[in-house]
Amino acid sequence: MPAETGRHPKAAVRLLTAALAVLAVLAGGCAPDRHSTPPSADDNAARQLLDQRATALLHHDRAAFLAGVDPRAQRFRARQTAMFADLAAVPLASWSYTLVRTGAFTLPAAADGTARIATEVRLSYRLSGYDTEPVVSTAYLTLSRRAGRWYVAGDDDGAASGHRTDPQLWDQGPVRVVRGAHSIVLGLAAPAVLSGYAADADRAVPEVTHAWGSGWPGKVVIEVPATLDQLAALLGGSAAGFRDIAAVTTGEPAAAAPGHGSGAAPADRVIINPQAFAQLSDFGRQVVLTHETTHVATRLSTTAHTPLWLSEGIADWVAYRDSGRTAPEIAPELAADVRAGHPPTALPTAADFAATAKGLPQAYEGGWLACRMIADQWSPATLTAFYRAVAGGGTLDARLRAATGLSLPQFTARWRTYVDEELG
């Protein structure tokens, strides 16, 4: 489909605002408990090397950082030299490595007889002024020992067996940083281009705070790779799967992230597909950024109990609530179905939001109208309170009864009537 259609703003954005993309992360440390095997000398040496590497990077000590890289691994050393430079502008509050295990994948014997170990490592980092919780990713590193000293010698030796190191934006090129009033943009484009994303985000944040409330940090972190292939690499998918998506929000669901019981906000990222985003109108850009920023704001209140029609619907409700557009303009596909005598019979399911689902646009539109109905026929405060209550568990039926006085079947019937009235 075209990225921007002009006649129907919703059609321009329906597949371009991604369903909430949750990146699973490892939880907990790797410290052995009292039943575990004591760490080996290799484990201790690996931890010491990783600690030295993290300290050097945080202190911008290039010589110390490269001193931990195998001098004979020339290709890897060149990439590490570039990565250190490409990361220089990123405002890091913390950077650490945790050794998860040694023997993580099979390594062939080195031709020169050098001792090597394959490690799985957890990288955690926070951006200064933006992250209260770390971004966590996995790396599979090869360590080599020469003259009694351990070095990092590679990060792709496990790729053939499926042990792939998660790429970061600074692995893809020099990262430039632009700060907005409510945002920070890390990207590979020129600062003037990145400033446009910051401006869009700075308009989105107050809109989201007005709709959702102040119970979130009120800041958004945006990453902008240079190409579709780079976007796909960051998200661990195929380029074809993201071609028509302008932005994706990544992060941990509230129940999975350490420390969230104390109200700590997870480290969300809004990742931009520059090609698709560039094809949007100014209105479409703002809808996308407001939609994705809503996902950031609602993260602490989004759990496995939250149905997708609610999480995607409220994001669209916030994005469109002050747009001045009519319901048929925002929901053209669902309106066409209603006019053709094929109205929806049930609220959208998780399967309806699959990227390949035939009725994906209608799923977004139906979720939006369900949330809009609650805000219109009860109140915006009822909608946001209902969203937060659903995250706490219990049945959806019980939560609906408490919020609206309607059972799930009654709510669905009311929604079907509302869809007919608004779109017919």
Mean pLDDT: 88
Structural class, please?
A: alpha/beta
Q: What is CATH's topology name of the largest domain?
A: Zincin-like
The helix fraction, in percent, is 40-55%
From the spread of the alpha carbons, the general shape counts as elongated
Report the span from N to C terminus. Answer: 25 Å
Number of strands: 10
Give the domain tally: 3
Low-confidence stretches: 1-35, 255-262
Number of helices, where a helix is a run of at least 4 consecutive DSSP H or I residues: 16
CATH class of the largest domain: Alpha Beta
SSE ordering? HEHHHEEEEEEHEHHEEHHHHHHHHH
Q: What percentage of amino acids are in beta strands?
A: 15-25%
Main beta sheet: 6 strands, mixed
| Rg of Cα set | 24 Å
Spatial order of strands in the largest sheet: 1-9-10-8-7-6
The appropriate CATH architecture of the largest domain is 2-Layer Sandwich
Structure characterization notes:
With 424 residues, the chain is an alpha/beta fold. It folds into three domains: 1-22 and 172-302, Zincin-like, CATH 3.30.2010.30; 41-166, Nuclear Transport Factor 2, Chain: A (Roll), CATH 3.10.450.50; 307-424, no CATH class. It is 42% helix and 16% strand. β3 and β4 form a beta hairpin. α9 packs across α10.
List the SSEs and their pairings.
Layout: H1 9-13, E1 21-22, H2 41-58, H3 62-67, H4 74-86, E2 92-102, E3 115-127, E4 135-146, E5 149-154, E6 176-179, E7 183-187, H5 191-212, E8 220-224, H6 228-235, H7 239-242, E9 247-251, E10 269-272, H8 274-278, H9 282-298, H10 308-320, H11 327-330, H12 332-339, H13 360-377, H14 380-391, H15 396-404, H16 408-423
Helix pairs in contact: 5-9, 9-10, 10-13, 12-16, 13-14, 14-15
